Each structure stands twice: as structure tokens, then as C-alpha cells.
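Second attempt. The first submission of MMPL family transporter had a stray character pasted in from the spreadsheet, which I only caught after the job came back as garbage. Lesson logged: always re-copy from the clean sequence file. Corrected sequence (729 aa) follows.
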Amino acid sequence: MWLGALVLAVAAAALAPAGEEEDLSMPGTESQKAFDLLDERFPEGDSQGAEARLVFKAPDGQRVTARENRAVVEHTLDSLDGGAQVASTTDPYETGAVSEDGTIAYSTVNYTADAVDLTAATKSALEDTASQARDAGLTVEIGGSALDTEEEPGGTTELIGMVVAAVVLILALGSLVAAGLSLLTAFSGVGIAFGLVSALAVPLGLSSTVAILALMLGLAVGIDYALFITSRFRDERAQGSEPEEAAGRAVGTAGSAVVFAGATVSIALVGLGVVGIPELTKMGMGGAGAVALAVLVALTLVPALFGFFGRRVLPRAARKASSYRRPGNERPHRVPTAAGRLGLGTRWARFVLRRPVAVLLIAGLGLGAVALPALRLELGLPGDESKSVQTTERRAYDLLSEGFGPGFNGPLTVVVDTSESADTRATTDQAVKTVRGVDGVASVGDPAFNRAKDTAVFTVVPKTAPDSGETKDLVHAIRGAVSGVEADTGAGVLVTGTTAMNIDISEAMSDALIPYLTVVIGLAVLLLTVVFRSILVPVKAALGFLLSVGAAFGVLVAVFQWGWAADLLGIEQTGPVMSLMPIIIIGIVFGLAMDYEVFLVSRIREAYVQGASPGEAIVSGFRHSGRVVAAAAIIMISVFAGFAGMNSPTIQTMGVGLAAAVLFDAFVVRMAIVPAVLALLGHRAWWLPRILNRMLPNVDIEGEALSRHAPASATMPEAAVPPLAVRRH
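This time the job returned cleanly.
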């Protein structure tokens, strides 16, 4: 059934038309209201339509106004004018679009369709025209929204990440077959998810970012979930269970934890929809779908492959130690352990138990220090300035900054709605005069009126770059200044443009960050209270989550704003952190943090409810789950870090942030802070008020009910039960 679903998904993706990128929007903001007003009052135009800027630079020592260079520019524009989907082209010599030194000029090409609707032939014609001008000796680059290069998955860094994941699986499981099983099931789930996203890209308007997020999350959680269930299956086989019974117990225990963990990740991702940004909602839904598929694959395809591969799933030592009545009929077996040999997880747990205060202080203060840069977090949206210098958009951006100033790449659009005002011209002139008097404005263009003469629009060029804090302050200053015009005339004056839209979205993200974090923390405490039937354990988990997220934000600020280790990651331009990243990282890391919390602490609680002391329960939990959780974290870090090498600022920021967050959460919070806090709390860690004990449902992800109803074939003789009923292998 899964093979059939994979074939159908791949076929659907292959037959479906390729999706296109959509403009980022946020209903309710001033900039979006202005765009909607322009579409209504200027129906012949498109406020967010496709636009290309052809930027020409003369050879060294020459001017672009020279006769031979001017002839090349005009011939280039003539060949574009009247082409398919081309609405108009501007002549830089008539519009004054020539730099003061005469070396750089630009032409604006307007299209009849949005950027997402431009055909490949239209884009190809634009690129061919630029190539012809280059052949004539000019430097020509293309900016604007018409050409928008997107990074596709499948690069070298992603491949390295997958190789690291495969090596870790082999080392953790000690079996090529078991490692291959985890990879095979993960690829199956992510193949279906990626195929569905690609097939639905056009009807649902899904961008490449949605597909890459589904690929990233599907690979990471798919491998981890298969690893957890496979590890538990091997534990049960080492206990003497028959293969079918071991598979059932693995799904009934580790599988229950997978369901809870996957549901937690999905809920956090779906919750991204409350922010109000359609693109963010689609990313959350796409990621949640990939996670849900990973859960279904882990619960059904993984145990099916246990039956298919048989004893080859077990490590070599287990296969040698077992005996068989006949091929294919396996007898229960137990793998003896070397006397006195302790695993790394056991030794680490005992070390933490001896020095819980020191471990807690070092880990907590260390994460706090890493999180300090997060106090300087600045949010923004990436533009052409953040792209690689290998792209023509970035080179066009640099040429325009060189010739016309940094603010030229981020013009603002002021819309004057005079439908409620008697004197349209006077109101518009007052608005223009007011804006010209605002500090930080480089120039103000002449206003243009619609046919009904009830709406005017004019362009404002800032003195500073689009992603600078000064430009953000300028937008607020202009809005504050024109409020006086609105009060005097009754007209509506709105500031918009791509730069203003980016600023509005970034501020909305900042405002939504704390409420969303509050909801996520509350959800974590509630879910973990139900799972672990404890008050202090969920509170500890939530505080640890805050530490790991804060440290991840600190890394983002240090790398992407301050430029630390930027060369290693190929980051050519520092600037604000992409405004969508904090909320996305919070949503994803929340679910992943709960994964590790559940898989590790559930084994600790399992030993505790079976009679172990608090300290012995911690050692037992690390003995059984420490190695698996560490391997799962390394795999997830490898997958996320593999995407950090892409040229897309969105995916690069996401990869670095998620890799750092998982590193801190798994190896510092869950491996150090959790056992230290549990050791200090002792029995109090598992205290739950009686009223809550009666009210809360019993989730039982530890499989207590399975232990009470264990079949005779899987039950160890009384003499063979180790102290504290802790199973050993």
C-alpha cells in the first residue's frame, strides 16, 4: 500500500505544472490596504505586478550616454517593447534614469501579468535581450520581480547531511539492514509528502519554501521515528519476545510516544496559521502534513519491514547468540551482556547524579550566555541584497546602489485617497510637501492620478538601504507626518511598497512572537502533565525549551546579523534575521524538544513506576534511551545543517536555526539539565495533586498496561529479572 501511494504521489508531481512563488502579504496591515486600494482605483495597472529593471553600465572610462552605448541601450529596449506579456518599457534618457556621473542607467519593464504568471518564454526573452547587450560591450544586470531565482533541493550540503545521518544510524544500530530500514521508511514518507506538495503547488499556491520545509522536516522526523521504534523492537527481542510480539510492544510503547511527539509537532505547526500570513500558514500546514505522514509510516511500514527483513534487523551479536528451530522460525533469545561493562549513557547519568548542581549551573549559564545576542534580534525580510553575488538580481542591486544611492532599491509608494476630500489636487500637493520635509527622504516623484481623479500616487526614495533601521524609522516618520494631512483634509494617506510591506510584516511578527510563545509553552505544560502525570517535570521541560530556543536565536543574531562564521556558511551579506524565522523555529523546535523529552523521560518514569529509586530510574532511562536520543539528535542536526548550505536566505536561516536549536535542546537541555533537575527533585519530580490525578486521562505511553498483560512467552522467569525490574540487553 505504501509503495502504491509513493508511485501515485511521484506520478502526480511529475504530471502537475510547476508552482510559482507568490508575493508575501499580510491582510490588515497599512501597506496591504494601500495595495488593495491601488488595485481598485487603478484597474488598468497591477500594484503588485511583475516588473524588471534592466541596469546598464558603460565600460570603464566611458559613459552610458555616449552615442554608441546609447544605441545599444535603445536597440535592447526596442527588441523588448511589444513582446509577449510586456506592457511597457521606459527610456532612461527620457525619464532621467541616468546616474550623475553618466556611467549607469536603468529601464523599467512592466508586464501585464503578475510575477507568478510570467511564462518561461517571457523570462527567456528578457535574459536573451540582456545577453545581446552584454555582447555589445555593456554590463547588463536584471533586477525586479520578473526574474526570481530560487534554490532547489538536492545540493552537495544536503547530500553530506544524509551521509552523516546514514553513518550515525549504522553506528547506533550496529546493522546495515536496520539503518537502511530507517532511511528507506523516511524516504518513503518524505517522497509522498514532497510529491503531494509539488502536485498541489498550483491549485493551493504552495511555494518552493513549503516543499523544502516538508522535505526537511519529513527527513528529520521520519528517520528519528523509525529509529525509536526499531530500537525498542530490538530491545524487546533481546528480552526474549517473539518477533510479532516484539513488534507489537515496540509500537505500543515507542510507537505511542511517536504518536504523541508527532501530534505535538503538527499542532505547533498548524498553530502558525493564527499569525495571519497566508504563506506562513501554508508552510505550517505543509510541514504538519509531512510530520503526520512520518508518523503513519513509522507505525505501519516500519513493523511491516521488521517482518520482511526478519532477524537481519538485529545486531550481529544478537544474530550469532540466537538459535533457530528451522529457517524463518525464531526462538526467543536473550543477548548476554559483558559483566561490568557500562555504556556511555549509564556513565554519564551517574556522573550527573554525583554532581547535579555543578552540571545544572554550567549548562544553564552556558545556554544563557549563548542566548545573550538574542536581545539584539532585528527582524526583516530578505531582498535582492541578501542573494548571492552570482545572481543577476544581486548584481543589479549593487549597480543601482552605486549609481543612485542605497535607498533607490527600496522606494516607498504613498497613496492619497481623496474620495472623501473636495480638492484632490490641493490635498495631494500638501501630502507631497509634507513628505519632502521628512528627514531621510532623498527625493519625491511627481504624483499620478487615476481616471476618476479621486486617488493619487507618488514615489518616495529614502536615503538609506531597504533593510536598514533608518528606513524603518523613516516609514514611521512619514506615516506620522501625513496624519496631519489626514486630519486637515479628511483624506486617507497610506504608505506602501515592497519595503513598507516588509517592515509591516516584520513588526507583526515581532508582536506575535510573545503570544505565540506563550501558547506553545502552555500547550507543552498541559500535554506533558497528561503524559507524565507530574507538575514539576512539565515546568522543567518548558523552561529548558525556552533556554534552547533563546540560544538558537542568539546563534542566528551572531551569524546573520553580526557575521560570525558567515564565510564558512557562504553568507555574503549580513542583515536582519528573516522575520518569519523566530515563529517557525519556535513551532518546530517545540515539537522536537517534546520528542526528546518524551522518549527520554518516559523511560525514566517507566523504571520509576516499576519500583526504582529516582536516581536509579535516571540511570535506567539513560541506559535504554540515551544513546538512541543522541543518535536521533545527531541525525536531525545533520539533516538541518545540510540545508544551511543553500543560497536561499529563507532556507539557510531555517537550517542554521533548527540545527542549533536541536543541538542545544538535545545535548544540553535533555542530556544535562533534565537529569540534573530530576536528581535534585527526587521523588518530588513525580508529584501530582490528587484532584488532577483523578481528572487527567491516563495516556500510558510507557506501556504499563502491556506489562500487566504480558504473555508467558515474553515474560522473564522470576530468577532472571534484574534488580528494580530494569531490563538489560
